[in-house]
């Protein structure tokens, strides 16, 4: 059982290195939107429900938008409530995209609900999120 | 930096096509230590632009929240035959570039 004690010590070390604090995303969102209201909907974040490993989690962002010159997505911003840097990425697109859909792979520091904020060409903001359960955080070796 | 871009071999005019790029890059978070205990400084590809015959169609501003060897897939309307040009830069200022030809029928 000595190896188990070692495991616990490792886990405790990791816990000390990464205090489990939820990021306050409100100031970031306010900065993004310039204070405008963010409506829920129109954007879907698709991830596996359970990620064995936070180093590389596949993620698909889908926005309901006709992607025409008059009505299209300007940007999609990915925010994390638990990563050490909450601003994960920002994608800028336009009417030439044809379809507002992006696939990538992200790093996640533990179980969390990743948030996507979308800015449309009419100036409105929409949000969507997906809960991902991460069994091994991407930041374990940070201790 | 080695990169691979994938586009369909041909497309009909007006068709929405998937564009994929994968770049070999560690995307260092800045939270890791090396074997000597020194912190490895943050180094990620912070900006990637894709231009279609010179017009910007996609941009990604990335942080440490994107996994190592970043892979992106997005879409574009096949408007005319020509070139998709990718340009990116990391925190150390190292630049990368990749071009791919696209043939549009009709």
* Estimated share of beta-strand residues of chain A: 35-45%
Helix content of chain A: 10-25%
How do the helices and strands follow one another from N- to C-terminus of chain A? HHEEEEEEEEE
The overall strand count of chain A is 9
Structural class of chain A: alpha+beta
Biggest beta sheet attributes of chain A? 6 strands, mixed
CATH topological fold name of chain A: Immunoglobulin-like
Strand order of the largest sheet of chain B: 5-4-7-8
- State the fourth-level CATH superfamily of chain B: Immunoglobulins
Percent of residues in helices of chain B: under 10%
Which two chains touch over the largest interface? A-B, 33 and 31 residues
User: In sequence order, what are the helices and strands of chain B, one letter per element?
Assistant: EEEEEEEEE
Described by the principal axes of the CA atoms, the overall outline of chain B is: elongated
CA-to-CA gap between the ends of chain B?
36 Å
What's the quaternary structure here?
A: heterodimer
CATH topology of chain B: Immunoglobulin-like
Rg of chain A, alpha carbons:
18 Å
Contiguous low-pLDDT stretches of chain A (5 residues minimum) are 9-19
The CATH architecture of chain B can be given as Sandwich
């Amino acid at each position: 059982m000595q190896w188990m004690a070692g495991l616990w010590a490792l886990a405790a070390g990791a816990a000390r290195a990464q205090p489990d604090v939820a990021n306050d995303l409100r100031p970031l969102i306010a900065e993004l939107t310039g204070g405008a209201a963010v409506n829920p909907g129109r954007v879907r974040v698709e991830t596996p429900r359970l990620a064995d490993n936070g180093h590389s989690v596949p993620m698909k962002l889908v926005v309901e938008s006709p992607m025409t010159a008059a009505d299209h997505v300007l940007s999609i911003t990915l925010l994390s409530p638990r990563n050490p840097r909450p601003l994960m990425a920002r994608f800028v697109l336009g009417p030439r995209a044809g379809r507002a859909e992006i696939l990538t792979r992200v790093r996640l520091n533990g179980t969390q609900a990743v948030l996507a904020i979308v800015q449309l060409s009419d100036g409105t903001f929409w949000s969507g999120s997906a809960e991902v359960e991460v069994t091994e955080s991407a930041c374990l070796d940070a201790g | 930096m080695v990169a691979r871009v994938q586009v369909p071999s041909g497309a009909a005019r007006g068709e929405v096509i998937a564009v994929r790029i994968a770049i070999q890059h560690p995307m260092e978070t800045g939270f890791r230590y090396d074997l000597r205990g020194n912190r490895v400084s943050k180094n990620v590809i912070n900006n990637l632009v894709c231009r279609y015959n010179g017009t910007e169609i996609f941009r990604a501003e990335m942080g440490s929240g994107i996994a190592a060897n970043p892979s992106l897939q997005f879409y574009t309307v096949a408007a005319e035959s020509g070139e998709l040009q990718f340009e990116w830069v990391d925190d150390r200022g190292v630049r990368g570039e990749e071009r791919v030809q696209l043939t549009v029928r009709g």
